[in-house]
Design goal:
- The protein is an alpha+beta fold.
- It has four domains: about 140 residues, no CATH class; about 260 residues, Aminopeptidase (3-Layer(aba) Sandwich); about 90 residues, Sandwich (Immunoglobulin-like); about 100 residues, Immunoglobulin-like, CATH 2.60.40.
- The chain has an eight-stranded mixed sheet, sandwiched between helices. It has a six-stranded antiparallel sheet with strand order 22-19-18-30-27-26.
- The radius of gyration is 28 Å and the shape is elongated.
Length: about 625
């Protein structure tokens, strides 16, 4: 292997370079290595329009032409041209067994090594040849990297120190059963290889799941004709919506030369954690925006996350911190259960926050500083574009040995659901802490739907404190709970509490209220379903409503039910609060309990029972009330 080396030892001069106008070109014939590519040198090169693609320590990898040597001469740097025909090739970083690359045959070429990382070249569109070696890859993109941003001024270390009952409740809500079910569904696609049709089906399924949790802003962002898009779900911030905290992980899988590419640990586990985060966080409001992203084509060189991070940087998206989830469910024999946190120097504040949050909310999960010995993941794309990011990983020294094979399956590679659940709990706690939960009063005291021949009558009661802040109310209808919802009629006065849908279809339909606030913003109430007909009186569901700990109780009333009583009882059978004592018209109802007793005092945490009684039914549901 022969490189052209040029050693230049001219005094370090940067100032004259800063006045140059950047001109980035896609037709740059060289891939060059520059030694001594410090932060200051990188800044000068970028300002002068040089495409610094990546830095490995103080070694820079640049796409350039014959204008490069004079610039480096002024900077006093040593450089080598690794590929003089760079326009004919794609280039990748590989961290893996050296013997695999040494055995590789042309047209794949090993260009250089930097601290255990190999730089390789191969003809354009021939990445499959590299994947066949079973190595982890990161593509070198012909666009300039960006230097790290400053630590966000909005972060306060004290935010971690104080324990929040709301965050504790969210953490306790993480379900190991849900996580395992998500992993099983993703495995069942057979493959999620980003070049195969099943990956598009997986993207559609993920988008549908995000929408089913009530997230209105869900997009499949396409950026390539070869690969499926990134699935992006956004929970907008209530106080600072332009400040974004992002959690992501790739949903694609790969097992070279195999028909089955199950990808259970790599990375159905991380993707399942994204879904669980969405399920738990979507019903609540936060000061900052939360963005949940399932990335495509990570296995092909971090291509999907690069597309997202590049777009975010160029559009000015204010991502204050990114959390990457990749491989969270394997525990090696005799290894200690813990979570590895991987960071770069600018992102150490985010790693420290994650450690404190885990210690506060998930004390059963030890946290250690990790260092990747092979491969990388989607956090690296955000580092490349100057964002702060950390990587949550099962173990950087003993990860699953079954990844990228047909054996990456539940039970063998995904062998520790407990670790998976604990890692997800830490993620939920970190996101909630960073974004800042917003205390929201009960908005909707009651909501009921009544079938009247071919019409549906809606009756609702809004909290007075909310109603006085509204400009108007709108009614929306959808065929499914997840939507999409269409507005019915025009805006109604905020004092209005009733609406009749004269064109309601005979099938089961869903309604919600659109609340237009005086400041021009809009929010939505929880949805309510109107069944085609009501067969019997019954409790349909009991669920937590919002940060204040209130409870939503759904029930339906059949014709001839007579007087209906709905109340809350303690474990000794004593009445805590009567919610309904009246004869109701047939229909579907939603009643809110603010956790107050008959005297208006907030009840203590513990087990309670919701009991419904009418002439035709008796129904009881158990209810666990969390502390505040």
């Amino acid at each position: 292997m022969r490189h052209v080396h040029t050693r230049l030892r001219i005094p370090f001069l940067i100032a004259p370079l800063l006045a140059a106008t950047p001109t980035f070109s896609a037709e740059l014939p060289w891939l060059a290595r520059v030694d001594g590519c410090t932060h200051e040198v990188t800044s000068a090169l970028l300002e002068h329009g040089i495409v610094v693609s990546q830095r490995l320590g103080d070694v820079g990898l640049l796409f350039a032409d014959a204008t490069l040597p004079p610039i480096l001469e002024r900077l006093g740097c040593t450089f080598a041209v690794l590929d003089a025909d760079a326009n004919l090739h794609e280039h990748y970083l590989v961290r893996d067994d050296a013997a695999r690359l040494e055995a590789a045959r042309p047209p794949l070429r090993l260009l250089d090594r930097v601290d255990g990382t190999a730089i390789v070249a191969l003809p354009r569109g021939d990445v499959a040849r590299l994947l066949e070696l079973g190595v982890e890859i990161q593509k070198l993109f012909r666009t300039p990297m960006r230097l790290p941003r400053l630590r966000p001024a909005t972060w306060r270390d004290a935010d971690v120190a104080s324990s929040s009952a709301f965050i504790h409740a969210l953490v306790e809500g993480v379900s190991a059963d849900s996580l395992q079910a998500f992993v099983s569904t993703l495995e069942a696609f057979g493959t999620r290889n980003a070049t195969k049709p099943q990956s598009h089906a997986a993207a559609q399924w993920l988008a549908a799941k995000f929408r089913s949790y009530g997230i209105d802003d869900v997009q499949i962002r396409t950026w390539s004709t070869t690969y499926p898009g990134n699935v992006v779900a956004t929970i907008p911030g209530r106080v600072a919506p332009k400040d974004v905290y992002l959690v992501g992980g790739h949903y694609d899988s790969v097992a070279p030369e195999q028909k089955l590419e199950p990808g259970a640990d790599d990375n159905a586990t991380g993707t399942a954690s994204l879904l669980e985060c969405a399920r738990l966080l979507a019903p609540h409001e936060f000061a900052a925006t939360l963005r949940i992203v399932a990335f495509s084509a990570e296995e092909y060189g971090l291509v999907g996350s690069e597309a997202y991070a590049a777009r975010a940087a160029s559009s000015g998206e204010n991502i204050l911190g990114m959390i990457n989830l990749d491989m969270l469910g394997y525990l090696a024999p005799h290894d200690r259960l813990d979570l590895d946190l991987i960071t770069n120097s600018p992102s150490t504040w985010l790693r420290d926050a994650a450690r404190e949050v885990a210690a506060t909310y998930v004390p059963d999960l030890p946290v250690v500083n990790g260092k990747l010995l092979r491969g990388t993941s989607d956090h690296a794309s955000f580092w490349r574009h100057g964002f702060h990011a950390i990587f949550l990983h099962e173990d950087s020294t003993q990860p699953s040995p079954f990844i990228h094979t047909m054996d990456d399956v539940t039970g063998l590679s995904y062998n520790n659901p407990e670790l998976h659940a604990l890692c997800t709990q830490a993620t939920v706690a970190l996101l909630s802490t960073l974004a800042g939960a917003v205390e929201v009063p009960v908005v909707l005291h009651s909501f009921s739907l009544h079938r009247e021949a071919d019409a549906v009558r809606l009756i609702w009661k809004l909290a007075p404190a909310v109603r006085i802040q509204l400009a108007s109310v709108g009614v929306q209808r959808a065929e499914t709970e997840a939507g999409p919802y269409a507005r019915l009629g025009g805006a109604l006065p905020a004092t209005r509490s009733e609406f009749v849908d004269l064109d309601a279809p005979a099938t089961h339909v869903w309604y919600r209220l659109a609340l237009r606030h005086r400041d021009g913003t809009e929010s939505f109430t929880s949805s309510m379903g109107a069944k085609a007909y009501t067969t019997r009186t019954a409790l349909d569901g009991v669920e937590s409503a919002s940060h204040d700990g209130s409870i939503r109780i759904r029930f339906r009333v059949a014709s001839g039910a007579g007087r209906l009583r709905l109340g809350i009882y303690d474990v000794r059978g004593r009445l805590v609060r009567r919610l309904v004592d009246a004869t109701l018209a047939p229909g579907d109802y939603l009643q809110t309990w603010d956790r107050g007793d008959v005297r208006g005092r907030t009840v203590a945490r513990g087990i309670y029972f919701v009991h419904l009684r009418s002439l035709d039914a008796r129904s009881t549901r158990k209810l666990a009330v969390q502390g505040r």
